[in-house]
Amino acid sequence: MYFREDDCQSSVQETGEGEAEEQEELTQPKIKLAMWDFGQCDAKKCTGRKLSRLGLLKELRVSNGFGGIVLSPVGKHCVSREDYSLIQKKGLAVVDCSWARLDDVPFVRLRCAAPRLLPWLVAANPVNYGRPCQLSCVEALSAALTICGEEETANLLLGKFKWGHAFMSLNGELLKAYSKCQNSADIISVQNAWLSQESQIPRAPTDSEVATLESEDNIHNSSDSEDGLPPLERNMNHLNIVNSDEESE
């Protein structure tokens, strides 16, 4: 059996076009993403708000329900591969609030059928760099996506931030281990095994390192109004949580 020269050339051309399509850079998430934002942090530094302004996720009101997986401190199980089918169908959401003001958030009023926790990871954002578990919205979403096998979308989100690559640098090995787990119990086993090896745990940043990161972040965010993004809008959840039952989408 043989191919004519023109058949070979056609085949090579088609293969080249296929590879080009596969290498085409992702510009929109493959997963539906959403966020409840309670306005407890600096809006210009809020990673969730920036993703919203970029059109990469939808902001929800307190009265809005969400049928997918929700990353929330009230979850009972860790997000894992077994959640992937629901994430594909219904999406992934995060609750954006301050770690210092969790008691002010009306978690019981957020209608979500599948709240989930994240396993142990280290923050790379300038506000909480080096601190365990105090992740920003983009870090939380990217971690969950990576654990469930959606690494391409995770990298898309992190790529919108100057420091985003640092999150994968700090947590890459552990995230890879989590991504091989099939359920929450396996995730917890990997987490505990990791924490039992003290040498694996990165040292806390010094005050000077934190100050440097915050200074760089302030410079980076000072031009937000000129970066081509839509202007910041009022946060309805923050303005009127008490009467939010009367709101409708």
Structure description:
The protein is α/β, with parallel strands linked by helices and 249 residues long. 39% of the residues lie in helices and 10% in strands. The chain is built from 9 helices and 5 strands. Strands 2-1-4-3-5 form a 5-stranded parallel sheet. Helix 4 (137-147) packs antiparallel against helix 5. It is globular. Residues 219-249 have low confidence and may be disordered.
Question: What would a concise description of this structure say?
Answer:
With 249 residues, the protein is an alpha/beta fold.
Describe the secondary-structure layout.
Blueprint: H1 5-22, E1 33-37, H2 47-53, E2 58-60, E3 66-71, H3 84-90, E4 92-96, E5 112-116, H4 137-147, H5 151-158, H6 164-179, H7 184-195, H8 207-221, H9 236-239
Reported for the largest beta sheet, the result is: 5 strands, parallel
Mean pLDDT: 76
Oligomer kind: single chain
Approximate shape = globular
| Strand fraction | 5-15%
Number of strands: 5
Percentage of residues in helical conformation: 25-40%
Name a few traits of the molecule:
5 strands; 249 residues; globular; alpha/beta
